[in-house]
Structure formats: structure tokens, C-alpha cells
Specification:
The complex is a heterodimer of chains A (about 450) and B (about 180). Chain A is of the alpha+beta class and about 450 residues long. Chain A has two domains: about 10-260, no CATH class; about 295-440, no CATH class. Helix content of chain A is about 45%, strand content about 15%. In chain A, a hairpin with a 3-residue loop joins strand 2 and strand 3. Chain A is elongated. Chain B has about 180 residues and is α/β, with parallel strands linked by helices. In chain B, a hairpin with a 6-residue loop joins strand 4 and strand 5 (about 135-145). Chain B has one domain. The chains are: A alpha+beta (about 450), B alpha/beta (about 180). At the A-B interface, strand 4, strand 5, strand 6, helix 4 and helix 5 of A face helix 1, helix 3 and helix 4 of B.
């Protein structure tokens, strides 16, 4: 059962909602938290979490929640997750602070995909859920919005450095999102009357003195021109010191940055490049796809039209030396890249991705790479050409001159591997994936 | 590819694995960074500005309830007369935090911060022979390797770091 990780949240946009609510420790955790769960059960409907996570996973029930809280409880509090594996995927993190310093209930909710909230009725129920939560656990500020757009807005710092943001917190209306809860203090900075007259889909005063403001009927169309105009208009209403055109221009830029870009990757490296966008934050995903669309790896040069003559005596021993070297790479990496054992073109793509994702050339020491990884990888790469393309080793004393004959060309896998391991960018410029493809084409 | 047919001799296998486990550059880079910081005039330092002359030691045995090793312990080499030397400690972690669920990230970070404080904060005894003394650690920092291991989602990460900071009073949590 696949539960949402932070990494998964980079792959597709979600609806993100978070808040810190006041939490009274006196009555005990179960009693104080029960209304939270009641509200969730009443309003979540078709995105209701089904799994409770702590050190273990349990099927959702009240008693599962209490058990999980008990398991994760330490001197500071307890943090647990409520999850839903699929469609939609949900990650709801509850952090109950149990110290005098931090009597808070911190809630972080992600529902993926965001398109799930195109339906007005679902959005309306979501608003009701938030209203009930923040009425029971008052918060100075809360917002629900596209996760990608929240990140582009630099939530919760809004352009401030971490220190300033932590000191000043939500001291003014820095941004306006799809759903906003302004606590009494924030309401005062704007003026209650002014805030209640904001042009928006729904503005409501809560019994706590907070104001609930919903910009539009649905959360998912936040990037449309109509939504952006409404967002800018409402924002400058709350912040008359801001200029409408400037605010709108910034919002349009955010919409442009999030507009889907179709992947059209260079075919020789496409299997590798297809896996890269998930590794960037959701807010830079489209821009990265555009960059990768433009990426053209240099044509492989690590081949010779005619082989250098064999300059070693003990020809029988040589292939076994290459195998030893290659096996030591398998020993080092097979837990990280299990497919390395298969020695197929897909294994090479998996290795490319692993080295790139881990930023291996820059995160591991140079002596390890130069003395072991690069030569061992050369031997492994040569071995794949031998095994999958019917190649034959043409050994040389110097490893980097060692060759594999495939068809009419001889290839230099050790040289390729050394170039490849120079930097993270070199992994893409000199990928194993592309090298294999080129050798395969030249097999003739 | 012989590996599929029969495993490597266990000793070779283990040697290679250990070599890769030790091959991470992060801790060494952090030490180089701290040494470079220590060499700067005090006013220009970023990490060690509360020392006159910081002495940087790695893998220093410290005892509270039991023996633990501080990744880096910095001690004042020129304390003011009559004053105990200032001591600060650093814990380094190379964890891939991106593959965690949000609740697990909070739990991991609070556990790391809480351990850093428990084992290398407060009053402790330095075991290393030439430094052997009772000391009060003034500042504890937990430094995670940043870059590719740092969660990309700053919205979530900042919230988690703020929580860890609020909960575990006395530890600074940073990414490098």
C-alpha cells in the first residue's frame, strides 16, 4: 500500500491546508482531539483517510488513532499521520504539542490531485470542514490552496528570511489564497468592516472573532485569468497599500510557471529524463520539463573505428579481472539499485538515475570515485555491451584503453565511465543509457 | 556477470560496502567548513563567532548517562582567565528525508534533535585524554546534509523545522 511521501507530493499538485490550532491539554488528549476526528468523519466524504500511521500502520478508527498517539508520544507531544492510499491520495499530519511551551495542535493536510477539487460541492464541504475545525481550535491564520502555488508564494515566509518569518509570523495579509482564515489580530490590522466587505465568493465572521474568506467556488481553477483577477482584487482590498497591476502581474507569472509543458525529450536519453521532473519541487516542475526538452546530450565520442592492439600477455585472466571489478560495483550498489544484477539496458538507466538523484559525483569523496566507482562502472558497462550486444573485450594494460568490440566499432567503456563521474551534469551529458543506445545502433 | 551465478566472497563484499559507507563527503566537508570559519577573524565568522580561538575536534567521546561520540566538539583554546572554556557541539546527519511521509519527517527530526541534546548537550564529561574535563555545552547544532537529501517542499519543511525548534528547546536545526 503506497502512502504519500514528500517526494510523491512533487509529482502532482495537491490541495494543501495547514494550521496551528489552540489545544487545551487539561481534559486529556483523547477528549480534546475527538471533535477534530468527528469533524473529519462528518465532512471528508470521498477523501476520508483510511490508514493511521505511527511506527506501525493501522486501519482508521478512533481507537487506532489513540493507539498511534500513544506509540508516538514523547516528552514533547505526539505526531501521527492519517492517510488514504489512492484516488485521491491523502496525507493528514496531526502534531499534538503537550508541553507548556507548545500547547498546539498542528495540522498539515494534502489531498492529491488538486483537480479532485474542481467539483463545487466537494469544495463547499471542505469549507465547512475548515470552519468547524478552526472554530473549535482557534488559529491566528490558515490557508488552503494549490500546493504548487503556495510554494511559489513562498508560504509561510512570503519572501522573508526564516528568522524574520518565525519572529513576525502572520503579521499582515501577505497573500490571499483560495480559502483563508484570518484570526482576530489579523482582522484588526485590516479593520473588521473592511475585511467583511472584501469582494469574494464567501466572507463570514466566525464566533471566535476570526473571518473565513473563500475567494472562489472551486479550489482547482486557481490559475485561470478570472481567478487571478479576483485574487488580485480581493488582495488589494485587504492591502490598499499594494498596487493592483503589480499584484496581478505577479499572479499571472505564477500561473505561467505552472502551465503544463509537454515532455518531448531526446529519444536516446528519454527513459532517464522522464524520471527527473519528479525530483524537483512541484512549483519548478514545468520549467524543468522545458529545460529538459531543450537538452541535447553530446554525441558519444568514446569509440574508435579500429581497435588498439591487445598489449597484455595473459589473455585468459583478463575477462575475469573485468568481472571482479564489475562484481565489486554490484556488491556496493545492489541494495540501492536492485536491477544492477540484471545487467540490462534498463539497469543502466536505473544506475544513471541513482547516481544523478543521489548526486553521487559530488556527495562521495573523489578518491572513492576515481579509485573504485569509475573503473568498476567501466567494467560493468563493458560487461553489459558484451552480454547484451554480443560484444567482445579487446583488453589493454591501461584500463581506460580497454575496449569492447561491437560490430564494426570498438567502444571505450572505462573512458565513458570516467567522464560520466565528473559531476552531476556529466551524468546526463555522458549517460550510460545513451552510450548503450549508440552502441546498439552501431552494431550493424 | 558472475555475480548472478554466485555471490562474491563475503569479505570482499563487506569491504566494498564499508568503503562506500565511509565515502560520503558531507562530514568531512563540514569539518573543512568549520576549520575555515575558525581561521577567520572573529567578527567575520559565521559558525564559531563566540570563540576567541576555537579548537575543532572530531568524534570526541563524551559521557552523560553513557559514552557517546560528538561528531564535532569545539572548545575554546584561549579561555578568559578563571573561566571554563566555552564548548559547542555539532551533530551531522546524511539522511534522505525526501522519501519520508510528513508525519515521519516530524518524528525523525524531533528524535534527531532530542538525541543531539540528550547526548551532546548540557553538562557532560569530555573523555578524550588531552581535553578531559567536565563541561557545560553552550550551543548544540544539528546539521542535515542539504542538496538532494533535503525535502523540496519548503512549505512543509519549514513548518516541520519550526515545530522541531519549538519542541526541542536548545537545539538549532539546520540544513547545509
Amino acid at each position: 500500500m503506497k502512502l504519500l511521501t514528500l517526494h510523491d507530493l512533487n509529482a502532482e499538485d495537491s490541495l494543501r491546508f495547514s494550521f496551528d490550532g489552540a489545544f487545551d491539554q487539561q481534559p486529556g488528549v483523547e477528549r480534546e482531539l475527538a471533535p477534530f476526528l468527528e469533524t473529519l468523519e462528518a465532512y471528508a466524504g470521498d477523501w476520508m483517510p483510511s490508514v493511521v500511521t505511527s511506527a506501525r500502520q493501522r486501519k482508521y478508527s478512533r481507537s487506532a488513532v489513540w493507539k498511534a498517539l500513544e506509540e508516538r508520544r514523547n516528552e514533547y507531544g505526539a505526531v501521527i499521520g492519517l492517510h488514504r492510499p489512492a484516488h485521491p491520495s491523502v496525507s493528514l499530519t496531526l502534531n499534538v504539542g503537550l508541553t507548556q511551551r507548545r500547547p498546539k495542535l498542528s495540522v498539515g493536510l494534502s489531498v492529491q490531485p488538486l483537480s479532485f477539487f474542481l467539483a463545487e460541492e466537494r469544495c463547499r464541504r471542505f469549507v465547512e470542514l475548515v470552519r468547524a475545525w478552526v472554530s473549535r481550535y482557534p488559529t491566528p491564520y490558515a490557508a488552503a490552496h494549490s500546493a504548487a502555488d503556495r510554494q511559489l508564494a513562498d508560504y509561510p515566509n512570503f519572501g522573508r528570511d526564516d528568522e524574520t518569518a518565525q519572529r513576525d509570523e502572520f503579521d499582515k495579509v501577505h497573500e490571499l489564497f483560495w480559502l483563508n482564515v484570518f484570526g482576530p489580530k489579523l482582522v484588526e490590522t485590516v479593520g473588521r468592516e473592511r475585511m467583511l466587505s472584501t469582494p469574494a465568493h464567501h466572507v463570514e465572521e466566525l464566533p471566535t472573532g476570526a473571518v473565513l474568506l473563500v475567494l472562489r467556488p472551486t479550489a482547482a481553477d486557481f490559475a485561470s485569468e478570472e481567478s487571478r483577477v479576483a485574487q488580485a482584487r480581493a488582495h488589494i482590498h485587504l492591502r490598499p497599500d499594494l498596487d493592483f497591476d503589480t499584484v496581478l502581474r505577479a499572479l499571472r507569472e505564477r500561473s505561467a510557471a505552472l502551465a503544463p509543458v509537454e515532455p518531448r525529450f531526446h529519444p536516446d536519453v528519454a527513459p532517464l529524463l522522464l524520471r527527473l521532473p519528479d525530483e524537483y519541487t512541484i512549483s519548478e516542475r514545468q520549467q524543468k520539463i522545458a529545460e529538459l526538452n531543450a537538452f541535447r546530450p553530446p554525441e558519444p565520442e568514446e569509440w574508435l573505428p579500429a581497435a588498439l592492439p591487445v598489449d597484455v600477455d595473459d589473455l585468459d585472466r583478463i575477462p575475469s579481472d573485468y568481472e571482479d571489478l564489475s562484481d565489486s560495483l554490484v556488491a556496493a550498489l545492489h541494495t540501492k539499485v536492485p536491477s544492477i544484477l540484471d545487467a540490462t539496458p534498463e539497469s543502466l538507466t536505473d544506475l544513471d538515475f541513482y547516481f544523478w538523484r543521489d548526486n553521487f559525483p559530488e556527495r562521495y569523496t573523489r578518491d572513492l570515485i576515481d579509485e573504485h566507482t569509475a573503473p568498476a562502472l567501466g567494467a560493468y558497462l563493458g560487461g553489459v555491451l558484451v552480454r547484451r550486444l554480443g560484444g567482445t573485450w579487446v583488453p589493454r594494460l591501461k584500463l581506460e584503453e580497454s575496449q569492447v568490440r561491437v560490430g564494426t566499432r570498438v567502444w571505450l567503456p572505462f573512458l565513458r565511465a570516467r567522464r560520466y563521474m565528473q559531476s552531476r551534469q556529466a551524468l546526463l551529458d555522458y549517460s550510460l543509457t545513451q552510450f548503450f543506445r549508440e552502441a546498439e545502433r552501431g552494431r550493424g | 556477470m558472475r555475480f548472478g551465478e554466485g555471490p562474491l566472497p563475503w569479505t570482499i563484499y563487506q569491504l566494498v560496502r564499508e568503503r562506500y559507507a565511509r565515502g560520503l563527503a558531507f562530514e568531512r566537508e563540514m569539518v573543512v567548513l568549520l576549520e575555515a570559519d575558525a581561521a577567520l577573524p572573529r567578527a567575520q565568522r559565521r559558525w564559531l563567532k563566540d570563540f576567541n580561538q576555537p579548537r575543532i575536534e572530531t568524534h570526541v567521546g563524551v559521557v552523560k548517562a553513557d559514552l557517546r561520540f560528538a561528531d564535532v566538539l569545539v572548545i575554546e583554546a584561549r579561555p578568559a582567565p578563571g573561566q571554563p572554556p566555552r564548548v559547542e557541539t555539532f551533530s551531522f546527519k546524511s539522511r534522505d528525508l525526501t522519501l519520508l511521509k510528513e508525519d515521519a519527517l516530524v518524528a525523525q527530526m524531533t528524535a534527531d534533535a532530542s538525541n543531539a541534546l540528550r547526548y551532546s548537550g548540557g553538562e557532560l564529561n569530555i573523555v578524550r585524554k588531552e581535553l578531559r574535563q567536565k563541561a557545560e555545552v553552550q550551543r548544540v547544532r544539528l546539521v542535515y546534509e542539504g542538496g538532494v537529501l533535503k525535502p523540496r517542499n519548503l512549505d512543509v519543511l519549514r513548518n516541520v523545522m519550526r515545530t522541531a525548534k519549538e519542541e526541542i528547546h536548545g537545539v538549532e536545526v539546520l540544513f547545509r
